[in-house]
Amino acid sequence: MRQTFDETTTPAFGEKHLPLLRARMAEQGLDGFLIPHEDEHQNEYLPAANERLAWISGFTGSAGAGAVLTDRAAVFADGRYTVQVRAQVDPKAFEILDLENNGLARWLEGAPRGAVIGYDPRLHSPDALAGLKAAAAKAGAELRPVDVNPLDQAWGDDRPPQPTAPVVPHEDRYAGETAAAKRARIGRAVADKGADVAVLTAPASIAWLFNVRGGDVIRTPLPLAQAMVEADGSARLFIDPKKVTNELPGWLGDQVRVEAPDALDGALEGLKGRRVLIDPGVSSAWWFDRLDQAGAVVVRAADPCALPRAAKNAVEIEGSRQAHIRDGAALTRFLHWVDTVAQHSLPDEREVAEALERFREGTGALKDLSFDTIAGAGPNGALPHYKPVTRTLRRMEPGSLLLVDGGGQYLDGTTDVTRTMAVGEPGADQKRMFTLVLKAHIAMAVIRFPTGTTGHQLDALARAPMWMAGLDYDHGTGHGVGSYLGVHEGPQRISKAVNSQPLLPGMIVSNEPGYYREGHWGIRIETLQVVTPAEPIAGGERPMLGFEQLTLAPLDRRLIDAALLTSDERAYVDAYHAKVVEKVGPLLDGEVLDWLKAQCAPL
Fold first, then answer.
1. Interval 486-508: pLDDT, tens
2. Distance CA 207, CA 218 (A)
3. Where are the alpha helices (DSSP H) in 140-263?
4. What is the CA radius of gyration of the chain?
5. Dihedral of CA 61/64/65/66: which sign?
């Protein structure tokens, strides 16, 4: 099985590792040190060698930070990880604080006057660092960059090696555009910004631009590398030679020079006097410091690959449709298993997650999971980002709910879907809450909106049915998704947080409202949907964008209280279920097909 359920850290990490770090801090004359979750590539999901926050504290969430002084330390996590961080981190070693609302910066405002607090400029973006420096200055403390990370020194020989997974071509039949055409397009974008060359450090941009995929990051087919792209479309790719396969140079072509990472320093020196585009939101402060030292003229602008990567082309969209039909068949087999076998055997969450993985493996096309499956039985389902581990496993319980959120990586697309299922006969309250979440989900599925609309502007439409009932959920409504890339992709998102990026045709976003009753059960309904081009509405004056549903998997009709739905909402559910049968049904037969047809019968 791909997913493991063993914990790789313990709360004892704090007591064991803090003295090692403090000794290295003292050697560098530091009174403190900052430890972001992000690595040199600003990744959300990290290779084992870059799990610095987990090593020092035991906390393994995908967002967080740490701060260590000579006499105290703190770990910061957001609302998704409130329960997890308290289970994984020793409160005697670390104060556990809220990451949200600039939690780390607020903490720095209370730093000791005169303290010298170190940071690794390779791990912090300049945008994030500016706020931290201002907070430290307010306290009369100093933030000082380090050349050698004291935590890496303290980790020493026990630190895993950096990954060296082979980098392989991602064929044009999946990408929909040749790498040469992409490079020419990005080169023009660089010139349009008044720059001579762009420095790319985001692994997803490098994978997209060169039509390659790798395996350096868990659950995401990313190669860790850096690149420089000239305005004429030629490029230099800096990558560990161990990752370079025999076919890679030929695939990249004559306009791309493949070089080892140790050539990077000389390449940066060669940018003296040139205008260099680099994104302060995704590239670390080290790059900006290094470019300034080299005498380059820095042009701060968004990564030129970000929007073209997010707005999928017709081939990528069709690939995503096919990936979702294939994945939908696997998911339907799993849901049938939950509704039949599992209702009697009452498996634990590990067995549930492994069953879903087996059904996805059965497609013969699965390259990896897109993230570790969240299988939450009963109270564990009330933790939005719960990850089952041996210590926390629960069995399915009659009268409760099972929430399962998982996805697959296929060559033609990335999937991410959540379904909530009743165990036994659901109660009236469970049906009411599920139906309110369904109403929120439908609102985001059917909305039409004008060009220029952002996900932030749409977010309240999904929440309105929940708000009217005095309810809400403490996570975003939707995130971007890549094409055989990251299951979380920007710059688009649908959430309360302000985001200025308009939704564009071809962007894939999730639609995942939820309700979580702490200590009892959780509900979430998630599908992926792609933004469709603006089209006229009968009787209207302006063409409107919309969404096409990509995910195809039945809802648990036992949890739907049809009396709470409007006629339009009931029609939507019936039409969605009819599409599931039409697209997924041909891949099924026998008992599973009969079950699907019954599950998708009109309300």
1. 999 999 999 999 999 999 999 99
2. 15
3. 150-155, 172-175, 179-192, 203-209, 248-252
4. 25
5. negative
C-beta of residue 50 within 8 angstroms of C-beta of residue 39: yes
Confidence at residue 157, expressed as pLDDT on a 0 to 100 scale: 93
- Rounded to whole angstroms, the Cα distance separating 64 from 309 reads 26
Beta-bridged to residue 256, according to DSSP, are 235
| CA pair distance 580, 577, nearest whole angstrom | 5
Residue pLDDT, tens place only, 408-420: 999 999 999 999 9
H or E, element range at 536: none
First to last CA, the chain: 38
- 549: enclosing H helix or E strand: strand 544-549
Q: DSSP secondary-structure letter at 348?
A: B
434-492 pLDDT, tens per residue? Answer: 999 999 999 999 999 999 999 999 999 999 999 999 999 989 999 999 999 999 999 99
Is residue 271 within 8 Å of 293, Cβ to Cβ? no
Q: Are 83 and 56 in contact (CB under 8 A)?
A: no
Per the prediction, the chain carries an average pLDDT of 96
Residue 175: other Cβ atoms inside 10 A: 22
Query: What is the greatest pairwise CA distance in the chain?
Result: 73
- How far apart CA 452 and CA 258 sit, in angstroms, is 39
The structure's pTM equals 0.96
Contacts 24+ apart (CB under 8 A), 491-497: 491/302, 491/306, 491/307, 491/310, 492/310, 492/455, 493/455, 493/456, 494/444, 494/455, 494/456, 494/458, 494/459, 494/462, 495/455, 495/456, 495/459, 496/456, 496/459, 497/456
Mean pLDDT to the nearest integer, 40-67? 94
Cα–Cα distance measured from residue 451 to residue 546, given in angstroms and rounded to the nearest whole number = 10
Reading the block at residue 500, the tokens are: 């200025």
Q: Is the bond preceding 491 in cis, omega lying within 30 degrees of 0?
A: yes
* Residue with the two structure tokens 């000239």: 230
- CA distances from residue 124 to 38, 228, 331 in whole angstroms, order as listed: 8, 20, 39
Q: Is residue 494 a contact partner of residue 462, using CB atoms and an 8 Å limit?
A: yes
Q: Phi, psi (5° rounding) for residue 388?
A: -65, 130
Minimal CA–CA distance to 121: which of 227, 214, 34? 34
Distance between CA atoms of 121 and 33, rounded to whole angstroms?
12
Could you tell me if 501 and 309 are in contact, meaning their C-beta atoms sit under 8 angstroms apart?
A: no
Are 528 and 546 within 8 A, CB to CB? no
What lies within 8 Å, CB to CB, of 581 at 6+ separation is 596, 597, 600
Q: How far is CA 173 from the centre of its chain?
A: 25
* Backbone φ and ψ of 233, nearest 5°: 95, -10
pLDDT digits (tens, 9 = 90+) for 196-253: 999 999 999 999 999 999 999 989 999 999 999 999 999 999 999 999 999 999 999 9
As a residue count, the chain comes to 603
- Percent over 90 (pLDDT), the chain: 95
Distance, CA of 313 to CA of 590 (rounded, Å): 37
DSSP 244: B
User: What values do phi and psi take at 492, rounded to 5?
Assistant: -80, 150
Report angle CA 39, 44, 47 to the nearest 5 degrees. 60
Q: Please say whether the dihedral angle defined by the alpha carbons of residues 7, 11, 14 and 16, taken in this order, is positive or negative.
A: negative
Report the distance separating Cα 62 and Cα 37, nearest Å.
7
Give the pair of three-digit tokens for residue 495: 């959430």
Query: 90-94, 384-388, 513-517: lowest mean pLDDT where?
Result: 384-388
